[in-house]
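BUG: 3D viewer hangs when loading the predicted structure for this chain

Environment: internal workstation, default settings.
Expected: structure renders.
Actual: progress bar stalls at 90%.

Input used:
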Amino acid sequence: MSLYDEDPVTIALRVGVVVLSLGAVVLGVRVAVSRRFPAAWVRLARVKLDERSEPVQVGIAQATIGVSLLIVQAPFFISMPLPLGRTLFAVSLLLLLTAAGAFSLLRR
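Structure tokens produced before the viewer hung:
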């Protein structure tokens, strides 16, 4: 599968997913490294005082989900054999489950 086999709407959606997932990775790494939630998150999500102590877990989970989305989109933009694409899909699912598990198990 390549970019030339699809219609422009599908390509635009895939590029949108890549841009959003890159944003999720950058924002997740920023939250995990700075150990602070952005002020907009605190206002919009109405984060409680006891939940404000978990920015590292939330940031790591968000960055891992963003990486998972990037890995899923890779076979559509880079020409690769089918078994490698399936392997990347399996790795992406594993990362997604790891992010969900880490976020839910580390919450106090």
